[in-house]
């Protein structure tokens, strides 16, 4: 099918993958390991090509950030899956109650079928290929719809993956919003979406029409909460890194910070000092990433301007706009005490802007967090593990970390996902394998099973069984 008719190709590829799955419902484990090994090798061989493509899409993307958060992450993910696949895929024995004996109970872990992956622009390589690795480990066929905001990366994904896998195994579908809508309307056996909460709601509605199970990796306003026993200067070191890495275009970046009341100004100044130490001369610093588009840059500008007009104090790193040229650089920015009804405090920021507010103790901070949508991540800073764990127990988020942001998502065996408005479902490690796996319950009985003794007409054996069952 010619690429000149992309909608027709979409349906043709889907039909081809459905047919291929029916022809090979249980891809051998050895083949799945080979699929993962090929993915690892491709990413290693073409890491520089991906870095250039991503840099072109952003206008400027830190090569170091791409190396660790894109290529390195995918390689580690695929390698981990390959190492543990035998254990993950093995049938799991389950105990049989006395009332059901004799017999054997177990769970078969079987591939769901054809999976759809809708990946975003902020980590265009990682968030396409890490779910792909999980789906390949599970034995699925996969179609990927990359973001239209990263066309160079999308094209490289299509070109590189087409050399590794047949189109009826893995296929990349390029296109804009109309294509994304059509993609999500296909009757996939599982649909995996990463992106914003508003679009996630539309994806869920499209999937619901086909009763397609869906994983939604969304976002939200992830707080960083600093206890009174923790140094503001020390907290600023890692919060600045987490916030301004990839210029804040990270779903688990600290969205806002809650510092002990009276310390907002000192903390804001400390954050900017750390940002300046990590990314001096942000206008011309190639390790400081640009904003993905003019539209996104204009939105960030409007958020800050609105907060400033409402009386909030806006602090920014030194920035030479002339040196930045047309690279859409937005300098590290801290906004002290923005109004709670401002867009800055209502919307996920997704950029290098950190609101800082005060709290009257961790109980007050927990109340503040709990009054809002469940965040994708939560970070608490305390010298006391007991204090940190007590705070975690009083809140709810998709994931969490103590005394550092973001690193929980790099622990392969920790499930990564949201809760409530920040998402549903999870992946990474075995959890990712299970996302694309159907756990099929099986009970095997012998040719003659005692259950026949309680068939109608009901008599003494039935009464005996009833008492035995109820204990």
UniProtKB/TrEMBL annotation:
Keywords associated with the record: NAD, Oxidoreductase
Gene3D superfamilies the UniProt entry points to: Aldehyde Dehydrogenase, Chain A, domain 1 (3.40.605.10), Aldehyde Dehydrogenase, Chain A, domain 2 (3.40.309.10)
Gene Ontology biological process terms from the UniProt entry: aldehyde metabolic process
InterPro entries xref list: Ald_DH/histidinol_DH, Ald_DH_C, Ald_DH_CS_CYS, Ald_DH_CS_GLU, Ald_DH_N, Aldehyde_DH_dom, Aldehyde_DH_NAD(P)
One cellular component (GO) term of this entry: cytoplasm
The keyword NAD is annotated on this UniProt entry: yes
Family classification: Belongs to the aldehyde dehydrogenase family.
Name the record gives this protein: Aldehyde dehydrogenase
Species assigned in the record: Alkalicaulis satelles
